[in-house]
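Q: What would this chain look like folded?
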Amino acid sequence: MTSPAVSTASTVPYEIRRLGVLMSPDPQAPEEVEGVLNPAVATDTDGRVWLFPRLVAEGNFSRIGRAEVQCDGGVPVGVRRDGIALEPDRTWEAGGRHGGAEDPRITRIDALGLYVMTYVAFGPTGPRTALAVSDDARSWRRLGPLQFAYEDALDLDLNLFPNKDVVFFPEIVPAPDGTPSVALLHRPMWDLSFVRPDHDVRLPDGVVEQRPSIWISYVPVDEVHRDQSALTRPRGHRFLAGPKQDWESLKIGAGPAPLRVPEGWLLLYHGVSGTIEGSVFTPQVDVHYAVGAMLLDPTDPSRVIERTAAPLMIPETDGEREGVVANVVFPTAVERIEERDFVFYGMADSRIGVAELVRRES
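A: My prediction, written as structure tokens:
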């Protein structure tokens, strides 16, 4: 049954309408016993839609699965499981008592002829983002962890810090200097407590926001045409947006790949409120995840032109309020199926929901 979005007047004319649960853990599958969540989605060259869920086994050990999305009348209603897309089988993807390949996002970049998957490699020093690419949305080859270029003006090496919620734009855009580039959003965290419990927060020069926020970086497209591994070496790092409202008071992070809309680039993102106990790397019980949206300038995506004051979606259903981490709606993919845009999102770190993204008529 469809549930309406949160009612709010907004200059971002979009809303999210729930459709239901798409995928729940199979109790007979050991790799899913602690949840299926936070999926990527891609449509292959044959028109089949594939879901790439994070599968969590006992001990919070994650893999990236693969399942074909089943539709009824063009609406996603279920999945057919089809194995594992990525196992965390590299040394930098696992630690002594933890590890995994987590929270994938996929962007189809037509100008490169590639599907680009970002995922969190939860390795010995905490979470780092890594890349894999595919020509057909089925077989994936790793390009390795992101290596952010050092920029002296920031007086900081971004590679020292955990970074998550990385997603690529689907089109070539101009960098601030005008260079045609592949752009990506990311969310550095100035917290090294995973490896240095006594470490004080150190911010980039000129940045005053300590809370995890959304940044943007770029890779010149000519370099990618010469060598695909250039995608792992972004530069031109800029702060894009930080927490602003009460419902996102702890942190924000990018959700699905930005979507080209008449107003510019539509970015769905998550905002987190509540209380963090101890390290951000430990499971939390008093947090609340909601979904917001912002519009980025169509010719300069480093500039936010509009932003929702109230969330488009908050945890409301039992499946969103109860789970491994309660009160979580976490959007990670938007896919167009038969001229409709569907949002795929994690529910309470336990299951996967689907909703429709709809442009609100004025």
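The radius of gyration is 19 Å.
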